[in-house]
Amino acid sequence: MDRITKFATNLHTELKNLSDACGTLLVDTFHYLALFALGATTVWSAVAAFLSMVQRNRAELTDILLLFIYLEIGAMIGIYFKTTRLPVRYLIYIVITALGRVLIELVGAEHRTGMDILVISGAILLLSFAVLILRFGSYRFPSNGSATYLKSGKRRLTYDLQSD
What is the pTM of this model? Predict the structure, then answer.
């Protein structure tokens, strides 16, 4: 009876290890395919936006900010590819830049000076405070590899790829 129990236990362990390995392979495969698709789509969109600017023979401030958004998305994808952690600050930077584009369009094209501008400006301010809080939190409570120590022993704040 002991031999049957040991055999069943070993078989169960082997099946669990095999299913874990297959599951990890499938998840990682999807992960890499999705990251490459997102990266390719970002590059494609950035090139299309740039070619549109070239075709018009001018680049407006909103166009340049759009290219910055593509740059931040590309950086975020690269960081996620290397660390498998999503840097929340980059998402906030993207939203701040997008809100800046909207603000410029509202003021420039429609010459509006009402509540819309106040709401968007407030949202940008609120998001800026969120970035400040995240940076303070990653400095004060660093995760693995988020703070580097200088030779003098002082802590220096670096881009925290881990905790955001």
Answer: 0.67
